[in-house]
Amino acid sequence: MSDVSVDWEKARELAYTAGRAAAGRAEPVTLSEADGRTLAEPLRALTDLPAFPTSSIDGWAVRGAKPWRPVGRVLAGQIAPPLTEDGTCVEIATGAMVPAGAEALVRIEASTRDGDGRVLGEPRNGYVPEWRQPGEEAAKDEELLPAGTAVDPAVIGVAATCGYESLSVYPRPRAGLLVFGDELLTGGTPGAGRVRDSLGPQIPGWLRRLGATVEMVAGPVQDTLDAHVTAVRENLSIADVVCTTGGTMHGPVDHLHPALTELGAEYIVNTVAVRPGFPMLLARLPGNRFLAGLPGNPQSAVIALITLVAPLLAGLQGRPAPVLPAVELTGDVRGRGGDTHLALARLSHDGRTATPVGHVGSAMLRGLANAHGFAVVRPGSEAAAGDVVPFLPLPLLTGERP
User: Fold this and answer.
1) Mean pLDDT across 327-355
2) Residue 375: pLDDT above 90?
3) Which CATH superfamily groups domain 326-393?
4) What is the spatial distance between Cα 259 and Cα 39, in angstroms, rounded to a whole number?
5) Which helix (H) or strand (E) holds 144?
6) CATH 3.90.105.10 occupies which residues in the chain?
7) Which residues, in sequence order, are CB contacts of 105 under 8 Å at separation 6+?
8) What is the pLDDT of residues 142-195, one digit of tens each?
9) Mean pLDDT over residues 235-244, rounded?
10) What is the mean pLDDT of residues 318-332?
11) For 368, phi and psi rounded to 5 degrees?
């Protein structure tokens, strides 16, 4: 075991690589079950989109010069017979098939009828067809979305439009949480030397936002080695990734490292050169399961979660490695010497600028609740207002925005 701190960016890379190597096999699921999963294969158009010339208006499909004699009607879902004679038209509905031979569409509101019932009017912008051409949106076999795309309702809609009944997706990772520290209160007001557990209630929500299902939350676990080993083993029996809170150092009641040794774990990362949150770890256990050790201080634990667990879960789901956006700072952020500094910050509505927030101690949560993520200040540097820096966002539900 090595206690040499890993560079923060390298730690994220190692976590993603480990997850990607352990991603489960693809499985087919129905469209209704696909939301929140990840495409294991590219989504391709099964036919031209649209598959036939489609009216964009309610009105008349016309051929030749006006006036036009109505010879029928075509509604959505019907096969339109061709228009074969000049001076004829058919009434047409939005979404209906445009008949072969039609030269233009005339909107119903731009048309009139003469005394013989013939149609008069002008196509909009001269004779520019107001219909969608076959393949206008996509050609048959065209790749619409690549493998690794997160499936949301819009993706499901595209798949349905193409005619898919099911999608090939990666399994959703199963996660568990163990809270270490039997001194923690699970209810009531803190006092008399005891504090409330704030990680047990919040970590499952972050895990779900990262795409995992939460199979088990247990603790506080008794501060003995046997209790730690038993709890980890039980959680690993049903979860692909187990997160633990606290016990990542080597104090008198920190049993995580001895428990990992007893369980045959291999360290992927053991401490990271980042402040806050450096005593974090990620280990691989037999059966290609993982344990992420999060520090006990609340803000540090969340930093560990999005530093190690977020890229690990992205890899397990077959998603691309997370790429950090760049933002302009509105205030100064000091450096932390040889460590990366993650500074809580709140994004502007357009996501272009980030403002540092207060109450940022590693044991505090008030600043976290007012932030959208962390401005990243690399080792050996300082950041001033106006500087452009990477931004590590907090996990969001699909569709959430600052």
Assistant:
1) 96
2) yes
3) MoeA, C-terminal, domain IV (2.40.340.10)
4) 36
5) strand 143-145
6) 27-48+137-169
7) 55, 56, 57, 59, 60, 61, 62, 92, 98, 123, 129, 130, 131
8) 999 999 999 999 999 999 999 999 999 999 999 999 999 877 766 777 776 677
9) 96
10) 96
11) -60, -40
**Are the C-beta atoms of 26 and 41 separated by less than 8 Å?**
yes
| 301 Cβ contact partners less than 8 Å away, ≥ 6 residues apart | 199, 203, 245, 277, 294, 295
pLDDT of residue 401: 42
CATH number for the region 27-48+137-169 comes to 3.90.105.10
- The residues of the chain that CATH labels 2.170.190.11 are 54-132
Find all residues with CB under 8 Å of 271, minimum gap 6, and list them.
3, 4, 5, 6, 278, 279, 280, 281
153 burial level (CB within 10 Å; 0-12, 13-18, 19+): exposed
CATH 2.40.340.10 residue window(s) in the chain: 326-393
Tell me which residue of 64, 70, 108 sits closest to 89, measured CA to CA: 70
The domain 54-132 having CATH identifier 2.170.190.11: the answer here is: yes
For the whole model, what pTM was predicted? 0.86
- Tens of pLDDT along 382-393? 999 999 999 999
Alpha helix (H) ranges present in 294-370? 298-304, 310-316, 366-369
Q: Residue 40's pLDDT is what?
A: 97
Cα 301 from Cα 205, distance rounded (Å): 14
Distance CA 234, CA 107 (A): 68
Q: 399: pLDDT confidence band, cut at 50, 70 and 90?
A: very low
pLDDT of residue 1: 42
pLDDT over 90 at 364, yes or no: no
d(CA 221, CA 319): 33
How far is the C-alpha of 175 from the C-alpha of 235, rounded, in Å?
Answer: 9
- Among residues 185, 399, 199, the alpha carbon closest in space to that of 304 is found at 199
The ranges of the chain annotated as CATH 3.40.980.10 are 6-24+172-316
C-beta of residue 25 within 8 angstroms of C-beta of residue 33: no
> For domain 6-24+172-316, which CATH number applies: 3.40.50.1820, 3.40.980.10, 3.40.50.740, 3.30.70.270?
3.40.980.10
Distances in Å between the Cα of 32 and the Cα atoms of 28, 85, 166, 174, 324 are 12, 47, 9, 20, 31
Q: What's phi and psi for 133, nearest 5 deg? A: -85, 150
